[in-house]
Design brief:
With about 160 residues, this protein is of the alpha/beta class. It has 6 helices and 6 strands.
Length: about 160
């Protein structure tokens, strides 16, 4: 199903170089809000800096792929030393495809890591790349987020049932 991620992990730091190597993944696109940071902050969550260092040491190229605007993502990306794509408009696949091209890899070697089904998972699926869905660091307050998270809960439940068979 187009809303099912290829993989699910609790948090980004649960994705290890050995897991990526086993799956043939060599390049990563990273969502920001509730994947690397809490929503609309510029501070990495605890453990994320160490995870980024681990990925760099293991030789994994990383690019940020965020729906946020450039004025917010540019300083954040610079502070952690990563290239980025802002205003990705996920689930539209166009900038994710640009990210794959910029990384210079095959789609089969690339994975997006993000926390939302209707943006990250769907966008990656439409772009033809794998996706790992993580749990958000915090639940967002806005009405649209609450509605999306409620719908996501149903999809995750079906996904879990399917994966347990």
């Amino acid at each position: 199903m187009i809303f099912y991620p290829h993989y699910r992990k609790e948090k980004i730091f649960d994705i290890t170089p050995s897991f990526l190597e086993k799956e043939g993944i060599k390049y990563l696109l990273l969502d920001v809000d509730n994947t690397l940071t809490r929503h609309h902050t510029g501070r990495l969550e605890q453990g994320v800096k160490e995870w980024l260092d681990q990925m760099h040491e293991a030789g994994y190229p990383l690019i940020i792929a965020s729906n946020s605007k450039d004025y917010r993502i540019a300083p954040f990306a610079k502070s952690i030393g990563l290239d980025y794509f802002a205003l990705c408009c996920k689930p539209l696949p166009f900038k994710l495809k640009k990210g794959v091209k910029k990384l210079g890899c095959k789609k089969s070697e690339c994975m997006l890591i993000g926390d939302q089904i209707f943006t990250d998972t769907l966008g990656a699926r439409l772009a033809g790349i794998r996706v790992c869905l993580t749990e958000p660091f915090v639940e967002e307050e806005g009405t649209s987020f609450k509605i999306r998270r409620k719908l996501e809960k149903k999809i995750k439940s079906r996904y879990e049932r399917k994966m347990s068979r």
